[in-house]
Amino acid sequence: MEGLYFDHAATTPVRPEVVEAMQPYFTDFYGNPSSVHAFGQKAARAIEAAREEIARLIGAERPEEIIFTGGGTEADNLAIKGIAMAQKDKGKHIITTTIEHHAVLHACQFLERHLDYDVSYLSVNEDGLIDLQELKSALREDTVLITIMSANNEVGAIQPVREIGEIARKNNIYFHTDAVQTVGQIDVDVVQDKIDLLSLSAHKFNGPKGVGALYLKKGIKIVPQMSGGAQEGRKRSGTENVPAIVGMGEAAKLANANLEKKQAKYSRLRDLLIERIEKEIPDVLLNGPRGDKRLPGNVNITFRYIEGESILLNLDMLNIAASTGSACASGSLDPSHVLLAMGRPHELAHGSIRFSLGYGNSEEDIDKLMKDLPEIIQRLRNMSPLYDG
Fold first, then answer.
1. Domain parsing of the chain, residue ranges
2. CATH-assigned architecture of domain 16-257
3. What values do phi and psi take at 192, rounded to 5?
4. pLDDT, tens digit (0-9, with 9 covering 90-100), for 64-105
């Protein structure tokens, strides 16, 4: 499809190598991986090969620590609800943040409303980063889980994951991180970072949609959230989506092989786009941190005096894809909960746009975007009652 795609944080194009790897498992090797015959065992071996690639990508010591799910949202729910239910006799207190993805926030709210858990929501600073001292102060005798995302999906703020892991490990508390935005984008190492549970999703690193995984450190008990079979080490029932899992494994292999090069390229493009927007368009505000505390491909900008939705519609008419934030919250007229938590007033939160760079983007794409974006912003401002320029 022709046009400019700057919405890789929402989803990424599937790489041709991934499609090629998946194809035989639709047409030739279609057996049920739980079956003992050759057809099934061919599929089962493909799943295990994919499990090894994903373990390698995140630094897991054992492939069996990878549990395949239907995506990042299911992995978050399995981790949070599964640990909470398994640890209910020890305590019913969970620590998270105000800027988590809704998969995490809603899972925590479910535990609060239906199972009488107590959840502490850490604040963030103007860059979207937590205060480690506030985390330490929130710890209690009955704290059983800390769940804090590795990096924010809207503003790209990379949290101090290793320090969080050290705090959790020192206090004998399980640490889960939603790493959907970081796996395949920056280096992730569950052992060095002392991560007990980690969620990831294939379609964020050029794999297929509808498949994800949960890393569960060996020896940790969780209560399964899907009942009905013995698949995935009895932790996630249901016949595995073999073609999608194969695709996820291939995407993980490709991501791991090109991680440093990819990170350097998208960081350079990110900084170039930020520089040009700030130089060529007045009255803009960068949301989130700069430099190495920001995801390589993330650019979140507030354009004062106008609505983000109006900008998106004008971009879309030119076949340029961007976002106002999380794709999972599309259709909502509410301002971003992330930007509000960072202290942005409603009118600024409403005027934010996320450009997320990824596979296939180039400097030429940025040049094309910047031919149209300043004109769109100025035209919309001229129609805005808030603008007096």
1. 4-11+259-383, 16-257
2. 3-Layer(aba) Sandwich (3.40)
3. -65, -35
4. 999 999 999 999 999 999 999 999 999 999 999 999 999 999
HSE-CB of 96 using CA atoms within 13 angstroms: 27
- Give yes or no for a contact between 282 and 364, defined as CB atoms under 8 angstroms apart: no
Alpha-carbon distance of 49 to 253, in angstroms, equals: 10
What does the CA dihedral 374, 377, 380, 384 come to, rounded to 10 degrees? -130
Nearest to 87 by CA among 191, 181, 175: 175
> Based on C-alpha coordinates, what's the Rg of the chain?
21
Would you name the residues annotated as active-site residues? 328
- C-beta neighbour count of 104 within 10 angstroms: 25
Domain 4-11+259-383: which CATH number of 1.10.10.10, 3.30.565.10, 3.90.1150.10, 3.40.50.2300: 3.90.1150.10
* 5 DSSP β-pair partners: 321
Q: Is 118 exposed, middle or buried (CB count within 10 Å of its CB: 0-12, 13-18, 19+)?
A: middle
Asked whether the whole model's pTM tops 0.85, one would answer: yes
Residue in the structure block whose two tokens are 């959840």:
119
pLDDT tens per residue, range 201-238: 999 999 999 999 999 999 999 999 999 999 999 999 99
Please state whether beta strands 66-69 and 4-5 pair in parallel, antiparallel, or not at all (unpaired): unpaired
Backbone angle region of 286, left / alpha / beta, with phi > 0 → left and psi within -120 to 50 → alpha: beta
CB atoms within 10 A of CB 207: 32
141 contact partners, CB below 8 Å, separation of at least 6: 91
The position carrying tokens 């746009």 is 353
Residue written as token pair 């005027």: 351
Bridge partner list, 93: 118, 143
Q: What is the pLDDT of residues 310-328, one digit of tens each?
A: 999 999 999 999 998 655 5
| Strand 93-97 versus strand 4-5 pairing type | unpaired
